[in-house]
Protein: EamA-like transporter family protein
Organism: Allofournierella massiliensis
Amino acid sequence: MKQHNSYALTLIGLHVLLGIYSLSGFFSKNAAAQPFLSWKYIAFYCGMMAIMVIYAVGWQQVIKRLPLTLAFANKAVTVVWGILWGAVFFHESITPGKLIGAAVIVAGVVLFVKADGEEKRHE
């Protein structure tokens, strides 16, 4: 039971980490909109780099605890986060096509995680 709980917590941590990682797009898009080497440019660029450092350290912890194939399959969820952040920060529209695409991605990740869980039970 404890191992199952740890596995679930690692998956939740992975998704929190991927949500943080997806914010790098927000910072890089805002940096690109600023004059080169202005204070705002540097601030957004530093924010993006800080996120990448957090992600790199977190990713190493995740792949220490999860199979690499499972961790990489979950990275697809960053597309869903990107849609959300685009709508929240840049007022981009969420179209039916984007929703369908996001649903397909989430369904694929869920199927992969369930298949991996079934495989672990039979070991």
Residues 3 and 9 are 10 Å apart (CA to CA). The chain has one domain: 2-121.
